[in-house]
Amino acid sequence: MIPQKELWSARTVIHTAMQILFPPRCGGCGARGAWICDGCASDIRDYAQNCFFCETHTLSTRVCEACAKRFAIEAIYWPWKYNNEKTHKIIGDYKYKGLRGAGPTLAKYLRQTVIERLPDDDWQVLPIPIHKSKERERGYNQSYLLARELGLPMIGRALVRSKATPPQARMNSRKERFESMRNAFEVQRPQDIKDKAILLIDDVATTGATLSEAARLLKRVGARRIVAGVLAHG
Ligand SMILES: [Zn+2]
Ligand SMILES: [Zn+2]
């Protein structure tokens, strides 16, 4: 086994080399110097205080009490609105153009929003898994890379995606999205879930079908409480 410390330094060397070979440019406006510039990050900020699911007014949890029960998630935190050309471009580049180097920069905004609002507890971070075939094709799971940057303990492999679901973007109705996610996950390590407070992480959430399907399964195997963090909603 390679010691963790050396792994980290290898990662830093690769990261630095990538920065030299492919200097970052803002996905929103093309400015050099960062994967997202301060101006674009504030342009796409979502200040909504409404329930993620039903849009009734809530405070910092962004999930109302009725929806928390129904969808098994008591709060969802997100910094950006997704229904925006810049956000699509920034997250799309990260996910589909293999710009994995952007992960830590995007995660910084997610971390700020999550840490600001997360109630006190022993949180374990669980990135939403993607299907093996997709991870092979893309070379990484974008949610795992975001989750890793949060600085909280991870239970990275407790859940697996057992069903390769079609891209949600191609589905029209909310009902279709929820139905396509049915039984999409399996719990691999129930002992990592039982009695735990779990923070689910994903890149984007629109209807919340993916988060909610995962949350309901985790509750069934004994998770104590569940919240979620995503980069963008809309
Ligand atoms: Zn910009
Ligand atoms: Zn609601």
A few lines on this structure:
The protein has helices at residues 4-21, 38-43, 65-71, 85-96, 103-117, 132-138, 142-148, 174-181, 209-220, and strands at residues 75-77, 80-81, 123-127, 159-161, 185-187, 197-205, 225-233. The chain is α/β, with parallel strands linked by helices.
SSE arrangement:
Layout lengths: L3 H18 L16 H6 L21 H7 L3 E3 L2 E2 L3 H12 L6 H15 L5 E5 L4 H7 L3 H7 L10 E3 L12 H8 L3 E3 L9 E9 L3 H12 L4 E9 L1
Parallel strand pairs: 1-7, 2-7, 3-6, 6-7
Antiparallel strand pairs: 4-5
Helix pairs in contact: 5-7
The structure holds zinc ion (ZN) (2 copies).
Characterization of the model:
- There is one protein chain.
- The chain is α/β, with parallel strands linked by helices and 234 residues long.
- Helix content is 39%, strand content 15%.
- It has nine helices and seven strands.
- The strands form two sheets. Strands 1, 2, 3, 6 and 7 form a five-stranded parallel β-sheet that branches. A two-stranded antiparallel sheet has the order 4-5.
- The longest helix is centred in the N-terminal third of the chain and has 18 residues, at 4-21.
- The model has no long low-confidence stretch (mean pLDDT 89).
